[in-house]
Write a structure and sequence with these properties.
Layout (H helix, E strand, L loop, with lengths): L1 H28 L14 H9 L1 E5 L4 H4 L20 H10 L4 E7 L28 H9 L5 E6 L12 H18 L5 E3 L15 H11 L4 E4 L5 E3 L14 E2 L12 H6 L6 E2 L2 E6 L15 H9 L7 E5 L10 H18 L8 E4 L32 E6 L6 E3 L1 E6 L7 E8 L2 E6 L6 E4 L5 E3 L1 E9 L5 E7 L10
Parallel strand pairs: 1-2, 1-10, 2-3, 3-4, 4-5, 5-6, 6-9, 9-10
Antiparallel strand pairs: 7-8, 11-12, 12-19, 13-18, 14-17, 14-20, 15-16, 15-19
């Protein structure tokens, strides 16, 4: 009897430990879920916009033919005659520059419309171009769609031609009518561009931005609205293409108003306590002016590259204006400079020394969030996450795997912004020596080292202040052969 009881107990104990081992094995196979996001979060359209990094503006209109930047509104439509206009060439120029999204000035401050609007004769219908049957908006849309390039439009609120301007109700009805024409008749528009430019002689003129924005979202739900106050993309606060060294994608919309010069610094830096996700767009022209002028040339390559580092490299999208000339073509000098610009960017970032390093981290959340996720091909939805018990400071260390030291002068860091922007301060060390520091990271932070190239066997990124545990989607060590700090 006792022996039977003994064997029965042994079987029960063996069975218990077998079931426990099976449970533990199954537990180890279950995926640990991702961490909770930190609000606010980007929309699908905002994420797609951010990943473009570089987009293109086409300033084109009567100013192109009158050699002005701001037209008076008195121009004769007959001056607009781009005899060789080729929107396919515009799009091809964009594609070769690595651009997948372009924006056209459908109407600038002079009020001249590049499409045949039903609400005004001050448009291409009074132009000798194509005997008044031309439509620049249509030509661009038709050229862009087969190449997979998305189109955005700028419809200037300020209209120096239309007699209704200055009578708020009448002009806003006119403006809404044109807005409906553009958003109903030309397919999917990915970005609509608003600014607060206004005639100082008509201070009582009021723009019904809330009505405009509501109409835009009703007509095209996936569009991004750009303005000083978003709601989807905000102005960076200057036309030099520079974001602040601190640049949050978060901001408070209630603190913003369109055309308010007192908020430029706030637009430039954003707000870590912001309740709205509204990343910044950096607009700048490849030439000194926004419209084409015969006596101007494209900016030097090193100046464009500096702009790239100070926009894309500071958590923004760079909107680079490339104005068509009087013939209706992108000038050969601009095409050539854009090809050089793309070649330089590809040369710098095509090689990532971090991929050949062993990678350590202060902790990890689980197998799915290991350090190697920072050097895979997904720069958004795979990422390193620290253990929920890790309270920081957090760190990542890249170690050279052969005897040769790492030589680089650019450090790239990217957050998994789909779960919110988190990092507020960070530092960079090479072989234990601090070589750089910064505040925000966001979608992309590029540190171009001020002292030039460094060499080392170990690189550590230390995250010292956050809004929530950091989630790093990608890191890179790159060499920029075009960077010569001694020349500055």
């Amino acid at each position: 009897m006792h022996q039977t009881t003994y064997y029965l107990c042994q079987i029960i104990i063996t069975l218990f430990f077998f079931m426990l081992s099976q449970f533990l094995r199954l537990s180890n196979q279950l995926a640990i879920p991702p961490p909770l996001p930190i609000l606010p979060l980007p929309s699908f359209s905002q994420l797609k916009w951010q990943q473009r990094e570089l987009i293109m503006f086409f300033h084109f209109g009567v100013n192109t033919f009158t050699n002005r930047e701001w037209g008076t509104g008195d121009e004769n439509p007959a001056v607009f005659n781009p005899t060789s206009l080729d929107a396919d060439q515009w799009v091809e120029t964009a594609v070769q520059a690595g651009v997948s999204h372009v924006i056209l000035t459908a109407k600038h401050h002079d009020g001249f419309c590049l499409w045949p609007s039903n609400y005004t004769a001050h448009s291409v219908i009074k132009s000798p171009w194509k005997n008044g049957h031309g439509d620049v908006v249509r030509e661009l849309v038709n050229a862009a769609k087969p190449r997979g390039v998305d189109v955005g439009l700028y419809l200037s609120p300020w209209d120096r031609h239309d007699r209704r301007y200055g009578v708020s109700k009448d002009y806003n009805e006119y403006y809404l009518g044109q807005l409906q024409e553009l958003l109903n008749n030309y397919g999917s528009v990915r970005e609509i561009w608003f600014d607060g430019a206004k005639d100082s002689d008509t201070p009582n003129m009021t723009y019904y931005f809330s009505d405009w924005f509501a109409m835009v979202k009703e007509l095209q739900g996936t569009i991004n609205i750009f303005s000083d106050a978003g709601p989807d993309v905000r102005w960076v606060g200057n036309e030099q293409g520079f974001a602040g060294t601190t640049c949050w994608s978060t901001i408070n919309r209630t603190s913003l108003s369109i055309g308010n010069s007192s908020i430029l610094d706030y637009l430039n830096t954003g707000d870590p306590k912001g309740t709205d996700w509204m990343p910044a767009e950096c607009d700048v022209s490849i030439r000194p002016g926004w419209f084409w002028h015969k006596d101007e040339e494209p900016k030097p390559l090193d100046e464009l590259l500096q702009t790239y580092y100070n926009s894309v490299g500071r958590n923004c999208v760079l909107l680079l204006n490339v104005p068509p000339n009087k013939k209706g073509l992108i000038s050969k000098t601009d095409v050539s400079r854009l090809k050089e610009f793309r070649h330089v960017i590809d040369t710098i970032f095509s090689t990532n020394l971090a991929k050949n390093c062993s990678i350590e981290a202060s902790s990890r959340r689980g197998r799915a969030f290991g350090a190697k996720k920072m050097v895979d091909s997904d720069h958004l939805w795979t990422y390193w996450a620290p253990s929920e018990h890790d309270r920081g400071p957090y760190w990542i260390r890249l170690n050279a795997t052969n005897r040769r030291p790492l030589k680089f002068n650019v450090v790239r860091i990217q957050e998994a912004i789909g779960l919110g922007q988190r990092i507020a301060e960070h530092e960079i060390y090479v072989d234990g020596t601090k070589i750089g520091s910064g505040t925000t990271i966001g979608y992309k932070k590029l540190h171009r080292l001020e002292e030039g190239a460094v060499k080392g066997k170990s690189v550590m990124i230390k995250i010292t202040a956050t809004r929530a545990p950091p989630l790093i989607s990608s890191i890179g060590l790159h060499f920029d052969p075009f960077w010569h700090p001694d020349r500055d």
